[in-house]
Specification:
Keywords: Transferase. Pfam families: CoA_transf_3. The structure is a single chain. The model is unreliable at 4-10 and 376-386 (pLDDT under 50). This protein has helices spanning 28-38, 68-71, 87-99, 111-114, 119-125, 149-155, 176-199, 209-216, 218-227, 262-271, 286-291, 293-304, 309-318, 329-338, 398-406, and strands at residues 19-22, 42-47, 77-81, 102-105, 130-135, 203-208, 244-249, 253-258, 322-325, 344-345, 354-355, 362-365, 372-375. The strands form 4 sheets. A 6-stranded parallel β-sheet has the order 3-2-1-4-5-6, with helices on both faces. It is of the alpha/beta class and 422 residues long. The radius of gyration is 25 Å and the shape is elongated. It folds into 2 domains: 19-222 and 386-406, Crotonobetainyl-coa:carnitine coa-transferase, domain 1 (Rossmann fold); 244-325, formyl-coa transferase, domain 3 (2-Layer Sandwich). The chain starts with 18 loop residues before the first strand and ends in a 16-residue tail after the last helix. Helix 1 (28-38) packs across helix 7 (176-199) and helix 7 crosses helix 8.
Amino acid sequence: MNHSPQGDEAGLRPLDGLLVADFSRVLAGPLATMTLADLGATVVKVEHPGRGDDTRAWGPPWTATSSSYFESVNRSKYSVALNLADPDQVRLAHELAHRADVVVENFRTGTMERYGLGYADVVQQNPGVVYCSITGFGSGAGAQIPGYDFVVQAVGGLMSITGDPEGEAQKAGVALVDVLTGKDATIGILAALAARRRDGRGRHVEVNLLSSLLGSLVNQISGYLATGESPTRMGNRHPSIAPYEVLRCGEDGRLAVACGNDGQFRRLAAELGLPSLADDERFSTNAARVANRDALVTALEAAMATADAETWEKRLLAAGVSAGRVADVRTAVERADELGLDPTVDVGDGHPRQIAHPIRYSTADPQSEPPVAVRSETTPRPTHPHSMSPPPELDEHGDTIRRWLAADRPEPLPHPSDPARP
């Protein structure tokens, strides 16, 4: 294993010193391992010689060296190409797994075992390993079912509640199930690492796309479990809150408006010049507004026809009502930048900018009275040097990693963004 720093060593990111063997590909697994890399872990991505991760070929859009899809979840990693069917090369994979703090894989159940890389194999040589397996439908009856995000959105119920009620079921605009599963995998890995610090033992972490999706249906699935009735598509409306939808305004504008309680609705009604709506028995409570949604929307849209979406957005926000115009991705990134959220990062080497890691860290200055939160130098944000490196080309670090794996008692492998890396 890499040396795992103890305590608050100055300048370290939260996971500095942690070694991750990444046998995953496509999205869920690579997202989990990139998150660990953003937090400071050293990630070695094992790819198939010749073709690499499937997503290298998923385009357009393309960058100068790969697809933007691949690059979105593979920064700050070493890449080594190993043919696991070759006895000499699989021995290097074994050595990597035996040295790693964390192993992540998303092969079909039984594949890693065939190469002597399953959890039962690795834990014999590496009892402290945190081994994360990501599947489509679990390791039981669904073990051999191939799991792609789009299909899981369909069979997992998400498409049935997405889209216009009069139209077809729709998928989400991004591979949301993969993203959710990748985040669940990260949570499971971090929890297992915390447990290891307590008892010294590793863990086998298992996540699957279907369970992650069902867990994300939250209120929709709890409604089914409570009533036995499946929810249906409602377009942009919320099944349990009103108003909580996109409203027409001006000549052809659209504004998302959300009122989560009666006080917010009262402020909305007042700003629209309709204060009596808040006392109308049809709209005075959330339950009443949900029951009389059509009449409510008619009244709201009639009032909002007097101005455009931008004007109403400013007025409602000033009144303390949550509202926002429907934006494209470019506008969303620009808005985040205007708000000082530092949404993108330059990973260097001429690569396109990437979305930044969303988590910030701060600590209290104990010398101040009272203690004041200050920006931590351990934050994985891109505002300080050497925190991230560009996504690797296939086998870009192959010679380095193969030499490191062949060495007896080598020095710890540094983070790819470290200027002192081999």
